[in-house]
Structures are given as C-alpha cells and as structure tokens.
Amino acid sequence: MATEPNKDKPGDGSSPGASGGTAGQVLAGNVKWIVGGVIAVVGMVLFKDPLTQLLNRADKVEITTSGVKLSTVKTPLGETVVSNKGLPPAAKPGSTATTTGFQTVRDAEAGFAISWPDNGRWSSQPEAARQFGARLVLANTSASRGEFTPNVNVVVTHDAAGLDVAQYLSATARILTGLGWEVSAQQADSATQSGVLVTVNRQMGTAQIQRVVLRNGVSYVITASRADGDTREDLYAAMGQILNSFELI
Predict the structure, then answer these.
(1) Per-residue pLDDT for 26 more than 90?
(2) Is 165 inside a domain boundary?
(3) Measured between alpha carbons, how far is 211 from 239 in angstroms, rounded to an integer?
(4) Number of independent structural domains in the chain
(5) Average per-residue pLDDT for the chain
(6) How far is CA 17 from the centre of its chain?
(7) How far apart are CA 222 and CA 100, in angstroms?
(8) Mean pLDDT in residue range 27-36
(9) pTM for this structure?
(10) Which among 138, 143, 167, 193 could bridge 23 via Cys, Cβ 3.0 to 4.6 Å?
(11) Is residue 77 part of a domain?
(12) Separation of alpha carbons 155 and 68, rounded Å
C-alpha cells in the first residue's frame, strides 16, 4: 500500500558540498541530521543498563533474498544492511522476502523507497520532518519513553559532490566525535557507495544507527536510535526492518 511522501524538498545544491572542497568542509556546516534520530533527547530519562552490551563490531555476513546477496554489519538493531539495496520487510537470512503487513512509500522525486509495519503504531510525522530538515520521519509515538520517541528518519542533502562514501563516513565520524559521540562501528561499501555508521552518546544514553548512501552528489542518511537499557526487542526489531527496507529507486 503506497502512501503520500513528505513534500519537503531535498537540498537545492546550495549546501557546502555543492561546490566541492574537503570532506570535513563539506559536512562542517551541515550537521542538523546528525542528531535527527533522537527526537527531543534533552532531559530524557537515562537508563541503567550499559549500551556496551548491545554493541557489536562490524562483521560482513550474507543475507540472501530474491537471489541478491547483501553485506550487513552487526548493530544494536541486529544485522543492518550496508548496500544501497534494501532488504524487503519481514525477510530473514535465507528466507523468501515478503511485504505483507507493511506500508511502503516510494518518493520518486527524492529517489528512494522505505517500508514500515502497517500495525497502526508507526506513522509519518510531517511536522517533525520539517523541524529536523528531514525528507521523512517515521515515529512510534505510542512507544515513547520519557522524551525519547522511537523513530526512523530519512534526510536527503546535496552535500556529497566529489566525495567517496568512505570519506563521507570518516568526516561524519569526526564531527560526531567532536560533539561527544563515540564511534562503535563504521563500514563502507565502495561498490555501491553506501555504508553504516554506529555511534553512542553515553551522556544521552543513546546509540544511533545510520545507513548512508551516496548518488550523484546527493547523500541519503537513514537514522534510527536505541535508548540505553530499553529491552523492548519487538520495537527495535521493527526499527531494524524499517532501516533495512530503505533503497534507492
């Protein structure tokens, strides 16, 4: 079931990356999306269990669906796809993919598709998208805890002209480190110009999982977050499926 995409337009090329420059210069003035995966985290209740128990270093594995082999990395949301090819919702390693019970938005203007569970819990949040400068924000408001709202968002920006995905990830990691985040995992797939970055902010009690895809000078950053000590595995399994379903069209 297709839904209407958010109509906010992606960047118009006026961001620092539109005219080239180093990776650090490209991203230095365009960091709004970095914390876009955490809605209103200031003042949120911190949880006791250490995030370290949830984090795993990068490890390539193969997931086969419809004959396509996808590289993944272990993250706090499970196996996260590194490639620019999405994993259809509800697909598991070695299984036949299915989209039953999911809604899919195909944003032809921005050039991507993403799916989420059609169970009444997840919905598009246009106001949040405008607030964070995102193309799309999907949130489960019924699962909010403190001021943390589980969400997956997509930011599309013209900031990657002349950059390789490995450069983009490294520059992003440097910026995040300067903002108090720790890099837990970083993996790039140069063949598809895509990758995954996992960062942790222990003061916020939050892990952030991001898929990054570059195409024609445009970056697609898909972000999800996990709160420290939150053991609602069904919730985070759904977030993982949403994150993995993203693909370029």
Answers:
(1) no
(2) yes
(3) 13
(4) 1
(5) 73
(6) 20
(7) 23
(8) 40
(9) 0.73
(10) 167
(11) no
(12) 26
Distance CA 249, CA 246 (A): 10
Domain containing 179 — which CATH number?
3.40.1000
Q: Which residues have a Cβ under 8 Å from the Cβ of 79 and sit 6 or more positions away?
A: 61, 63, 72, 73, 93, 240, 244
Sheet with 102-107, side-by-side order of all strands = 102-107, 112-117, 247-248
Q: Is the dihedral of CA 187, 202, 223, 168 positive or negative?
A: negative
Instruction: State the pLDDT at residue 87.
Output: 61
Nearest to 82 by CA among 60, 67, 64: 60
pLDDT at residue 197 tops 80:
yes
pLDDT on residue 44: 25
Which domain range does residue 190 map to? 16-58+122-239
Burial class (CB in 10 A: 0-12, 13-18, 19+), 228: buried
Question: pLDDT digits over 140-188, tens only?
Answer: 999 998 878 899 999 999 999 999 999 999 999 999 999 899 999 999 9
DSSP secondary structure string, 182-229?
Answer: EEEEEEEETTTTEEEEEEEETTTTEEEEEEEEEETTEEEEEEEEEETT
- pLDDT at res. 82: 83
Q: Cβ contacts of residue 77 below 8 Å, gap of 6+? A: 209, 224, 226, 236, 237, 239, 240, 243
Half-sphere exposure of 70 toward its Cβ, with a 13 Å CA cutoff? 28
Pair of tokens at residue 168: 């983009």
- Is residue 34 scored above 80 in pLDDT? no
Among 158, 150, 157, 186, which Cα is nearest to 75's?
A: 186
